[in-house]
Amino acid sequence: MVETSFDIELIRAQFPTLQQKVGKYPLVYFDNGATSQKPKVVIDRLDQYYKLENANIHRGVHYLSQISTDNYEKARKSIQAFINAKHDHEVIFTSGTTDGINLVAQCFGTLLEKGDEILITELEHHSNIVPWQMIAAEKGLLVKYIPLLENGELDWDQLDELLTEKTKLLAFAHVSNSLGTINPAKEIIKKAHSNGTKVLLDAAQSLQHFKVDVQDLDCDFLAFSGHKVFGPTGIGALYGKEDLLNEMPPYKGGGDMIKTVSMEKTEYNELPFKFEAGTPHIAGAIGLGTAVDWLSGFNYNEIQQYEDELLSYATEQIKTIDGVTIYGEAKNKSSILSFLIEGLHPYDIGTLLNQQGIAVRTGHHCTQPVMDHFGIPGTIRASFCFYNTKEEIDLFINALKKAVDMLK
Ligand code: 7TS
Asked: How far is CA 347 from CA 98, 359, 360, 363, 407, in A?
């Protein structure tokens, strides 16, 4: 029995999407790794913004523009508090994790020289691989990888050897989106720093599951997406240490990121505006502020314990099905269950599960090097959130058994 001290029915009641049926089946949403559903408080906040507050920010002296600007900057402070950044201007609004990583690759990348090295891992989402390969090709840098082990953990023992005097940045996922592995971020960051290497943490899959404190971790950059932490799509944030952000040139040129522009030259604005060219996703930022305030109202220890119990229960149950292989059995693992069933195509399983109201993801999950490592084209991935229940896992397992019977 999954025990919880928080009231799961009260939590679920806040999510309109979860109240639906898919045909005659209740929706079982196990695609939280891709995006989370939104609580009513966030939906209402967006509604209020567009109904009553809509105006462009930082430019107007009028009533609505001032309200919008205040709320946008208040959202930045909410995110500062959420990740415990030292200053609010260390929080840059982006369109998501991908955008944040690209910003660092381009702007920090500008400071690097031919022959410098970027260290990433074999476990990364494509958005933490491709931007580094792009800047490496442009600047003549070398991208190196921490290798993956069979159980889904990274071979961090190789860190000392892979870090050289040329390694300027280490970038890695806090939590793997395809295997659920939780990387020992604090310890790794400390080692990288002792080599003089800066660290970017891809927190796309961690903030929704456990407390992340940028000052405690001492990461130099951290990127995350709003839509995975109960906020809107198209918004996210990049945290960067003040001195590094100041040192880096801007990412995009345009309005709001400048102090003065003449026909000859431009003087850039101060942080955080230097990195926020153009009209931003104002509603999104405000909605994200509401989402992280809402999430901060929970006790993370309870969330983590509850999700661990869900994962253990699902893992135990799925092992009763013949021919199941689980990918990712790290000791420290987040609530992601990736698996295959011998002889069956993941896509067929996903389709039959969908016909029974179960939403899972199939494919390579934008982590093709991970799939190559295991010699498979993809997996079926069930990813859980604290609004999921043991009863939903039972529905999933029964639906999976039915799908297997139909296909075998
Ligand atoms: N990094 C990790 C670890 C991710 O899981 C994702 C998205 C990203 C970066 C990119 O985030 P975005 O919001 O900028 O797209 N992961 C997934 C997934 O697992 N299924 O769909 C998106």
From this structure: 26, 12, 10, 7, 12
CA dihedral 387, 184, 127, 286 (to 10 degrees): 50
Distance from the alpha carbon of residue 309 to the mean position of ligand 1, in angstroms: 24
3-class DSSP state of 381:
strand
Closest Cα to atom 16 of ligand 1: 34
CATH number belonging to domain 43-296: 3.40.640.10
Is the CB of 106 inside a 6 Å radius of any atom of ligand 1?
no
**Out of 107, 219, 366, 385, which one is annotated catalytic?**
366
CA 223 remoteness from chain centre? 7
CATH 3.40.640.10 in the chain: give the residue spans.
43-296
- Counting from 1 in the atom list of ligand 1, the atom nearest the Cα of 176 is 3
Pocket-testing residue among 130, 228, 230, 371, ligand 1, by greatest number of atoms within 8 A of Cβ = 228
Q: Where in the chain is the domain with CATH 3.90.1150.10?
A: 8-30+299-407
CA–centroid distance for 377 within its chain: 23
Q: 320-330: per-residue pLDDT in tens?
A: 999 999 999 99
Would the CB of 34 count as within 6 Å of ligand 1?
A: yes
Strand 221-225 vs strand 198-202: parallel, antiparallel, or unpaired?
parallel
| Model pLDDT for residues 144-184, shown as the tens digit of each residue | 999 999 999 999 999 999 999 999 999 999 999 999 999 99
* Residues present in the chain in total: 408
28-74: pLDDT as tens digits: 999 999 999 999 999 999 999 999 999 999 878 999 999 999 999 99
Residue type, 63: Y
Is the CB of 168 within 6 Å of ligand 1?
A: no
125 Cβ inside 6 Å of ligand 1? yes
Does ligand 1 lie within 6 Å of residue 367's CB atom?
Answer: no
Does 5 have pLDDT greater than 70? no
CB 124 less than 6 A from any atom of ligand 1? no
What top-level class would CATH report for the domain 8-30+299-407?
alpha beta
Give residues with Cβ within 8 angstroms of 129, minimum separation 6. 120, 143, 369
Q: Which atom of ligand 1 sits closest to the CA of residue 99? A: 14
The pTM (predicted TM-score) of the whole model is 0.98
385 is catalytic: no
